[in-house]
Design goal:
By secondary structure, the protein is of the alpha+beta class. It has 2 domains: 74 residues, no CATH class; 143 residues, endopeptidase fold (from Nostoc punctiforme) (Alpha-Beta Complex), CATH 3.90.1720.10. The protein is 18% helix and 36% strand. The chain has 5 helices and 19 strands. The strands form 5 sheets. Strands 1, 2, 13, 15, 16, 18 and 19 form a 7-stranded antiparallel sheet that branches. Strand 8 and strand 9 form a beta hairpin. The longest helix has 10 residues. The protein is globular and about 45 Å long.
Length: 230
């Protein structure tokens, strides 16, 4: 949205959980997205590669860095990042398992678990049905659709950040309500997007940050807050 020429950014309120249908659609929409370890949907920069190389030297070898540099200027993700990119809640693959509301062995996977996460140590994907999943597989693969049987998954996770209730179809709407008072971020961090839900990530708000929204946006009946640029 814009007021004159000044862009208005939106951040996701931490009380709204994305649905399983939204998660599946989101993952499918990100097929082909480059994989870089540590990425959570933001546009890749040389500075970010340098930071991750210092933090994860065993992963960011000379060869890996050369491959990552090819994706500078593109939105990138890692396996857990494709979920965090949607929800705005930062978690690693192990934390998704630790915080799951339900965990079952991979042998119990069935079609009632569409939208659940597939997990093995160090990796996570999303089950989309009919024996397939979406996974950000690695820097040599990117984000792909693959057969569940092609990866040695060990568990299926019902994620705590996703609403798995069946709410039916909701028509697509977008409207702006009146402004709201200043609010303090209580989540560990929240992404700022240039459009609700599907927009590019333009910033991250840390816990304790106070923001002063200029309005409230509703997309499919779900509330987002609008804040001014900068």
């Amino acid at each position: 949205m814009r007021t004159g020429d000044r862009p208005q950014y939106h951040f996701e309120e931490d009380f709204y959980l994305k649905t399983k249908a939204e998660l599946v659609a989101w993952c499918e929409s990100k097929l082909g997205t480059p994989y870089v370890y540590g990425a959570k949907g933001a546009v890749l920069t040389q500075s970010q590669i340098n930071t991750w190389a210092a933090l994860y030297p065993s992963t960011f070898t000379t060869s890996y860095i050369a491959k990552a540099k090819k994706y500078i200027g593109q939105a990138c993700t890692d396996c857990s990042g494709i979920i965090s990119w949607l929800t705005g809640i930062l978690r690693g693959s192990s934390n998704y398992k630790d915080t799951a509301s339900q965990t079952v062995a991979i042998g119990k996977l069935d079609e009632s678990m569409i939208g659940w996460a597939l997990w093995k140590s160090g990796h996570i994907g999303i089950y989309i049905g009919n024996g397939y999943c979406v996974e950000a597989k690695g820097i040599d693969y990117g984000t792909i659709k693959s057969k569940v049987s092609a990866t040695a998954w060990t568990h299926v996770l019902k994620l705590c950040d996703i609403d798995y209730t069946d709410s039916g179809n909701v028509s697509s709407t977008y409207e702006i309500a009146t402004g709201v008072a200043g609010l303090t971020i209580t989540a560990l961090s929240l992404y700022v997007r240039d459009y609700p839900k599907t927009g590019n990530i333009v910033d991250t708000l840390s816990q304790g940050t106070t923001v002063y929204p200029t309005g409230k946006a509703f997309v499919n009946g779900n509330a987002w807050l609008q804040i001014p640029d900068g």
